[in-house]
Amino acid sequence: MEYETIKVEYSNNIGIITLNRPERLNPLGPAMLRELIKACDEVEQSGRARVVVFTGAGRAFCAGADLEDILKTITLKAAEQEAVVRLWDMMIWRVRNVELPTIAAVNGLALGGGCALAIACDIRIASEDARIGAIFVQRGASAADMGVSWILPRLVGSGWAAELMLTGDVIDAGQAERIRLFNHVVPADQLMKAARELAAKLAAGPPLGLRLTKRALYRSVWEGLQSQLEYEAAAQTLVFLSDDFHEGVKSFFEKRKPEFHGY
């Protein structure tokens, strides 16, 4: 299958999905979201992979939402905005529901939607120069987006989740490993080697056993994630209509600190 914004490769029972817009730090726009969903379908159904690795081309894993697309989105009617928000949710739901084990090989920045994509994977390996954060609150939006409010507390606990989501702080790889957000941190030039080694270890396991083990890990809480995605979509759509969010996006392009007024 041909893709414009991502690459899909196979090697030794490993499927590698690479976000491939390095000149813009691999931002998540509608085209990439749709292609990621299709890629999950392809790799899962290909028979050529027992493990899936997600990574980014260039110096970033994913710098977050494509703000140029966001500018277009906030000119739409509320129902149309919600449809865009739900596309982000569909991508996260699809990644989380891949029946194969998934590894995020986090190179460089993983911000906003990039953070959401990384934590939607089962395991995270990061380069020493990786940085991660749920930053959308800094632009006047809600950090409860793309399943982050459901997944993040289950990884790092409610205290760290609250601090990261309410401040929008970006933390380095060392801190992310200390709070259990990253499983492993390795030198940047060793990232894909480490990801492939772990993927190969998993791929050597029993395919059916791995699928059923993963299914059992998440079975008791699937419904909880779905309902949380519903709430997040409604809340984020409401935020998109606010003056504060318009100010947050505008200030980003004007390279200044936003001034929020509460409406």
Summarize the structure.
The protein has 263 residues and is α/β, with parallel strands linked by helices.
Spell the H/E element sequence.
EEHEEHHEEHEEHHEHEHHHH
Instruction: Sum up the overall morphology in one term.
Output: globular
Average pLDDT score: 90
Number of domains: 1
Task: Provide the fold topology.
Layout: E1 6-11, E2 14-19, H1 30-46, E3 51-56, E4 60-62, H2 67-73, H3 78-97, E5 102-106, E6 109-111, H4 113-120, E7 123-127, E8 131-133, H5 148-156, H6 158-167, E9 171-172, H7 173-178, E10 184-186, H8 191-203, H9 207-219, H10 222-240, H11 243-253
Parallel strand pairs: 2-3, 3-5, 4-6, 5-7, 6-8, 7-10
Antiparallel strand pairs: 1-2, 8-9
Task: Describe this structure as you would to a colleague.
By secondary structure, this protein is of the alpha/beta class. The chain has one domain (6-203): Alpha-Beta Complex (2-enoyl-CoA Hydratase, Chain A, domain 1), CATH 3.90.226.10. 51% of the residues lie in helices and 16% in strands. The chain contains 11 helices and 10 strands. It has helices spanning 30-46, 67-73, 78-97, 113-120, 148-156, 158-167, 173-178, 191-203, 207-219, 222-240, 243-253, and strands at residues 6-11, 14-19, 51-56, 60-62, 102-106, 109-111, 123-127, 131-133, 171-172, 184-186. Strands 1-2-3-5-7-10 form a 6-stranded mixed beta sheet, sandwiched between helices. The chain has a 4-stranded mixed beta sheet with strand order 4-6-8-9. Strand 2 (14-19), helix 1 (30-46) and strand 3 (51-56) form a beta-alpha-beta unit. Helix 5 crosses helix 6. The termini are far apart. The mean pLDDT is 90.
